[in-house]
Each structure stands twice: as structure tokens, then as C-alpha cells.
Amino acid sequence: MMAATKRIVFGVAAVTLAGALTACSGQAGPSAPGAREGAHGAKKQGPKAGPKAAVRLIGDGSTAYTGKQPHLLKPQRLKPGQKPPQFVVFSWDGAGEDSQRLFSHFRKVGRKYDATMTYFLSAVYLLPEDKRHLYDPPQHSTGRSDIGFNDVEGISDTVEQLRGAWLEGNEIGTHFNGHFCGKDGGVGTWSPEEWTSEIAQAKAFVKRWKTNSGLKNAGPLPFDYDKELVGARTPCLEGQKNMMLAAKELGFRYDSSGVGKQVWPKKTEGLWDIPLQLVPVPGRAFETLSMDYNFMINQSRTVNGDPAQHEFWGNQMRDGLLQAFDRSYNGNRAPLIIGNHFESWNGGTYMRAIEETIKTVCVKRDVRCVSFKQVVDWLDVQDPEVLAKMRTLEVGEAPKEGWASFLANRPAAAPSAGAASPVKQAERH
Length: 429
Description:
The chain has about 425 residues and is α/β, with parallel strands linked by helices. It is about 30% helix and about 10% strand. It contains twelve helices and 14 strands.
């Protein structure tokens, strides 16, 4: 089980539309008190073996090079007049496995509906409570974390999920470490140098989880985290500017800490800036961020709201996400970005909403439910002029003349080496 020290940390960002309150992506620890079991799900089993390549252990053997990550779509530059695919990214802040077993559950959901996702790991979930002194957070005392640490069982369970997730084609990003929000030493007050320290420590806890936990006989994570880690989401969506200044020097390729609209992304500070998005709240006169936490704040303002409203609130989130999907799918085809936490807030209704969204949208024609890394792989091989033109389309706006005319009359460039058509694979997992 995850350590009992976890607690919910609510950070609030000023993200409003029509005067309505919307809170930021406050992080909840994987074993928040009172949490109940979330959604139940698919029974389809994943692969039993990893990539068929020589394993080269790294450092203390916590991580290893096992070859190229399997089950990824290969990007190809759009042909003249070709309609873009509809990308949908499901992402998870914190990404620890606890007694609710939501990490393992949504891996099963992903396999069933051909969806790969991004898991933003809070690296203190790989650091045991008795080793908390190894964490030296910026502007806070050594050994402090607003989401606690873990125990050996929780570390073992989380590593098992991270290992399996990567082998299935999912991405392991970072949600950093202690999840500090607000003005009193929160991440929004950190300098680029402090972010550099935070990132280095997040990597270190992943690269030394065996030594720190004592689980020396366990298998390694099957990736080199220095190369695997290319993107992030900051706690409470704070501190993005200085984090990006640090991250671009460390080889990051994207960030998803911003707040935006359903339009095609652009680069900021040399990184793809792919924010959470404002999406409809059915029956309300405002929009909120595309995250379970924000729907919860607008509905109940508490994780344990009126049980009689749970079904309605879950349906409202699901239907809001589906409306957001429809206006991209039938409009500008901008990627839809959805954020979540492995939490059973309001009886698990938001987990149900996410699962129903996945099974509805990921099976549609031309839809690619993939990780952020796969989206930026695709963006990187596109003609910059084509992307700039697609960015002129507003939320829900389809080209008036149709895609064939809108993206016609330009020279077709050869795809990158080894690239193939972005067609869904028959078996990704």
C-alpha cells in the first residue's frame, strides 16, 4: 500500500470563463484518506514479455536500456490536401499504484481500446518514507513533500505498472516531486536553477529506486530515464515559464502545464506548448479545464459530495469531453488534451467518465489516442507552414473550402527516415 502520509493538496489557479471558478490541477496523493475503489474494467491481458533485445543495466540496475520502445505509431508528414488525424491525449498526474489499483485498471482499458497514454510520475512515489531526507526541495526543508512519500510495497507496485506501461507504448513523463503550490515556496516562485535541481532529483529517484527501496532483486525499468523523459506537467499548473527555461536545457521536447483552447499547439521557449484545454460543461454557461479535478471543483468543491449527484456529475464530465472531442473531430482537428488523477473523488464518477470517453472516441475513424511524445513526434515531421496554417483555425472551425483545398498546393516532402503511415496498428500492445 502507499504510505499513509499522502494527503490531498488543492492548488487554485485563476482560470475562469464567464466569471466561473475553475481550479487548477491540484495533486492528490495515491492513498488519500477515505478513497474508495474506482471504476472496474476490462479483462484483456497485456504482453508477458518485453522487447526482444539485450538488456543493458544502467547505474544500480534500477533502469536499463532494452531497445526501442515497442507499440508506437510512426509519424509521417501530411500529404498535400490530407486531413490531419484526430489526436486525443489522456494523461495522468502523479501516476502511482495504490490499493485502488487505478493505474493497472487504466492500462487494461488502454489495451482494450487501442489507446496509449502519458503517465506523469511524481518521483517521490519511488522514495520510501525512511529515505525522505534524500529529497532537498527548493525553498523547503530537507525531507518535506506535500504529497508524502511511499513504502516498499507501494514502490514495488508502482514500478510494476511503470514497467508494463512503457512496454505497451505508454509514455513516462514527470510531475516532479513534492507538489508544492501557492505563494509560500510553491513551484510558481521557483527560479530556473531551482527547477533544474527539482528535475535532477526527480530523475535520481527513478534511476536509484532499487538502492533507495532495498528491492535489489526486482527487475529494472526497461528504459533510460535520461532519454525517456521529454515532457512534464507542473504541480497546480504553476511555474511553467521558469520550468520550461530549465527543461529546454535538459532535452525536454514539450510541456503540458498551460491553459489554452482547442487549437493546434505552437512552440514556446523551444518546447511544444501543449496545454490543458477549456471544454464545455453541459448545462452551464461556462467552460472549465479538461481535467477531473476541475469538474469536481465546479460541481461539488469537495471530493466527497452528495452521493445522489455522483452519476449526474460523471455524466456531465463525460458529455463535456465528448462535446469537446466532436468540435475538434468535425472542426479544426486540434489535439484534444485530457488530464486526470488516479483518484475516486465523488465515488469514482470521474474515473467512469474517463473510461466511457476512451471507449467512445478511441475506436473512431482517423482517431489516434496516443501519448504526448507521439504527438510531438508527429508535429516535428510536419511542414511548419502547414502547422501555421492549421493554427489559424479557431475552436471547432473546419476549413470552409474543405481540407483538400485548405492544405493543397504545396510541395510534398519526403518523410523522415524509417517513417510510415500513421495508420492504427492492428495490435499495439
